[in-house]
Amino acid sequence: MTASTLAAEMSFVGNTLDRCATKRNDLVWIEEQLADPNARFVLATPKQLVLDTSGETPRILHSLERAYELGASKTEIAFLGMRSPEQTPIFAATIALRDEDLETFDGLSGQGLRTLAIDNNVSAEELGYLAQANALLHWHRSHKFCSACGQPTYLAEGGYRRHCHSCETDHFPRTDPCVIMLILKDDKALLGRPARLAEGVYTTLAGFMEPGETIEQAVRRETLEESNIKVGQVRILANQPWPFPANLMVGCVGEALSDQIAIEQDELEACKWCDRDEVRQMLERTHPEGHFLPPAISIAHHLIVDWLEGRTKL
Ligand SMILES: [Zn+2]
Description:
The protein is of the alpha+beta class. The protein is built from nine helices and 15 strands. The site of zinc ion has 8 residues, from loops.
């Protein structure tokens, strides 16, 4: 399997919105899109997306009137892009309501993006721009003040910049890359159990990249830190936006140069070499100790299953 086929099966990779990056700095153009009666809005609280549950299937898009009714601020609306083929402007905004207050509105409810993805209630394309919205709105909520001078910042460029009028500093939305790696040796895969995950889940090792580091160096450092396994050759297979809140998962395969595991207790509860039979039991939920793989929305699942099915080589 090629990297692109693997990528197409993951959640959050199907965003086809035209971000109109050369137009969104034009305030007049943004105002025209906001005034378009067909414009639609992704609305969110700090923890949940707002769903319109008045119809047969939940809908993730709302009208401008609904956005203002729920307390979205006119100056804090971000432009996500144009949806084809009908050229619908799609925006995103954080609303003023608390999660519990949402339930007092008929036909509205809140749901976390992770649950929405796992439940598979929205299309691959919608999940793609919900990822964009989740990451972007989180950044706006957490960057209200200038990190250079402490004064308030203001949304600019359709939401892709915040500006401080006090010291004229521009701030840009961040994406934090993480490496996630399938480490192989003698036809066995190195899988670990981070304590933060559900009981029984075994998955690929992963960690944040550090400044001044290549992807390959990050794979070797993180694997050594978490398991004491030395890694040689590393190859990038696929990548996935992971909007919790704003990561990019860079999926790699790496060749282990050692096999004696010593786990870092702060990171992992357990870590082991798994042969294909054991990984298949995890996939099919027949593992004697109840171990299982992460859900299919994640790149980890696909890294593991692609190797299991013989599609990934070192
Ligand atoms: Zn400033």
